[in-house]
Amino acid sequence: MSEVVIVANAEVAGHYASDCIIDLVKAKPDSVLGLATGSTPQPVYRELSRRQHDVDFSRMRAFALDEYIGLPTDHPESYRAVLNREVVQPLGLNPGSVKVPNGRASDSSHAGADYEREIHAAGGIDLQILGIGTDGHIGFNEPSSSFASLTRVKTLTPQTRADNARFFDSADDVPMHCVTQGIGTILRARHLILLAFGSAKAEALAAAVEGPLTASMPASAIQMHPHVTVFVDEEAAASLANADYYRWVFDNRPEWQTF
Ligand code: GLP
Questions:
Q1: Whole-number Å distance between alpha carbons of 156 and 11
Q2: Buried/exposed 127-144: b ≥16 CB within 10 Å, e otherwise
Q3: How far apart are CA 64 and CA 202, in angstroms?
Q4: pTM over 0.90, yes/no
Q5: Does residue 244 sit within a domain?
Q6: What does the pLDDT average to over 99-110?
Q7: N or C: which end of the chain has fewer CB within 10 A?
Q8: Which of 33, 35, 37 for mutating ligand 1's site (highest number of atoms within 8 Å of CB)?
């Protein structure tokens, strides 16, 4: 089962997730992170930036979870640009140490296989940060994505395009296609941290953590992973049937236990 930690707000989640990352990098300076984009991971990246002097990030490497297809590379909402802004620059990383799937339309047929090779060559992902879409997607693995899928091109659902329209001038500007790590790729990471904040995520989060395993709810695949930590605020936790048990578990954690 996933460890579900219900926190007061996103900042507390950002603090806990940063602890995990900092502990990992202290133990293994060339750790490989998996980086989500969107609004959800921002408190984690802000907290890492605030604590960047607690640890040497210079050897850390990272892989983005996904990228839009067809945006110019300098477009501010390409995930390359977002990660440069939110992670690479604040932490003073070498931009070459953070890989992003190739979103150039002309190369998309082999972008997935190329990216899988790069992840493999880096020794795999140690810790993957995940958000969750309102339709239950992780990365951009929309409902019906195979649990065995690897990095590949996907078509965004109208719901995801509408959800992400806030980042663009108009809904029509949201790309239709993307390259995303597959669910199988995500499940190979050694530790998954899934974050969810706000009431819009409550139904998907409950289905992911407590519902049946189904490709119709891509995030339910995390139930098959041996090391998952879910940090969720009260609003996103509102539909969890076992919320009281998760609180009980957290309040009675053995002192030696880490996330
Ligand atoms: C986005 C990203 C996902 C993200 C999810 C939730 O479109 N591709 O990686 O986790 O959808 O987004 P947000 O955190 O902005 O709610």
A1: 29
A2: bbbbbbbbbbbbbbbbbe
A3: 25
A4: yes
A5: yes
A6: 92
A7: N
A8: 37
